[in-house]
Amino acid sequence: MEVEEAVDIVDDNLKENPGEVNENHEVMSLIVEDLETDQEVPFMNLTIKPDQFVDIHILDDSYEKIEGAPNFRQIPGFPLYGTGQPTEAAMLDIINRVKRGKEDEKVLWFSMRQEPMVYVNGEPYALRALDKPHENLGTKLSTDQIRTVQCHLADMLRKKLDDSGDKTLKIHKDKEYEENPMDRVDYEETLQVDAIDDLDAVYEKCRKACNVNLEIVHIPIIENQGPSMVYFDSIIARLKDEPASTPCVFSCQMGKGRTTVGLVAALLIKEIQLSTELRNMEKLNLINPDALKDFLFEKFEKVGTVEQDDYDPLCAGEFEVIKQLLETLPGSRQAKRKIDIIMDKCGPPPKGVGIQNLRECIIETKWKFDVAAEDKQKSFKTMIINFIERYFYIICFSTYALQYGPSGYQVTFMEWIEDHKHLQDMAEEGKDKLEWSRTVDASKLEQLRALMASPDYKDNLAVLVRTIYDFAFLTYSDLPRGPVKNNSMKKLAASTLLEILPDEIAEKVTKKLEEQPSTSHDFVTIIGLVAHY
Q1: Composition of the chain by helix, strand, coil, percent to 5
Q2: I want to staple 86 with a disulfide (CB 3.0 to 4.6 A). Which of 2, 91, 247, 272 is the partner?
Q3: Burial 512-528 (b: 16+ CB within 10 A, else e)
Q4: What are phi and psi of 250, to 5 degrees?
Q5: pTM, 2 dp
Q6: What are 247-296's pLDDT values in tens digits?
Q7: How far is CA 1 from its chain centroid?
């Protein structure tokens, strides 16, 4: 029996047996206040920026692709889909792809974004601050307020278009995408415009064109963060009484973190729903117990084996605050195991079909932090702390859902969290408890100092170079092979060499590097200067 078959069996049985915010929030709030009093409000110091960019689609080429829907994918066996914000044409293609052909069929579309947006020429654009064009607007607006802002944004852009005289608008773009916002370069462009629509208008077009009952569920999440507890409850409220076969689409700008959060929560809810109904059918002797046990293990619990030498505790999510959670909260170990399996299914190949693993992305971002220049590390550090906090609360949600899901969620997640207030303090105090700098082997460092202090150190440069590289390799032996590991080793080799230089040589090398700031400060350059002096 496949998951799809089980979904259909459960649905048929149910029919037969019915049973972080930035300062722009203040600006947006004032806009909403003026709009509610019917005043015309200009979007001063704000601009629009296209959602889609070159190479936004990073999903493996072996998977299904819908043009204009970056990173579109389906969770195998479930009518759960994820995508980046699609073009209007791609939204039509997605709905036609996911519907099952029934008249006026229901399709749920979960928008996981909190930033206001608009469609120009059928392409999605987001509202951005002119002084922070690389960051999504952080707002605390309600769903209705966001819709109000989006409608007004479309009206204001139409007015600008009429006033332009040549049917053009100024927009902002990034020259190329960089994961770290501090690495992105902004520029302005003039766009010839044929059509402007607010998001609700695009949804309505798709609803009519596809002949479906398209229901929109807005779950506003700030990029690279988890949803507040109330939005977990919103997802539960929308799905708990919904047939398991109802198609659900989750979207955000890129279809990455926020979309994956929605998919993980929905897959957990649907697995609990399906498992509960199948067990109820077992009690009625409608399903063979052994067959059900094998099915549940094979489809929901089975995990791939990991060789002991390849096991990485941090890739497995064993951070200090997570270990503290598992020791404190009853049922959390089982919940972590369950949600880790689901995160793997929703994550990148070969374990899953997505583009971000909500657990493994923590240490992957830490590796990038380790090799980033000091002025670029701040953004990565913020991401890492947010990712740890997000993972912490998703484990809490899994613990709650496994306890209360089978009985229909009689207690909300918000109420559950209020009864476990100590967990919020635990998360706040422990989310940044991480080794932010590498601990090096002090004894090996002293060996290097001794080699460098020798009067004939120039004759032993080959030995010194090999020893420094061995030292760097051992320090980063836990990292997988690839550019991150190579860059980490090179950076440590260069900093180690500078650290062990005799004062006289160090002064000359440093002075030379300062005199020529364009000169690379890498290991090869420094060793060349050492040989010269």
Answers
A1: 55, 15, 35
A2: 91
A3: ebeeeeeeeeebebbbe
A4: -115, 135
A5: 0.81
A6: 999 999 999 999 999 999 999 999 999 888 888 887 888 888 888 777 77
A7: 33
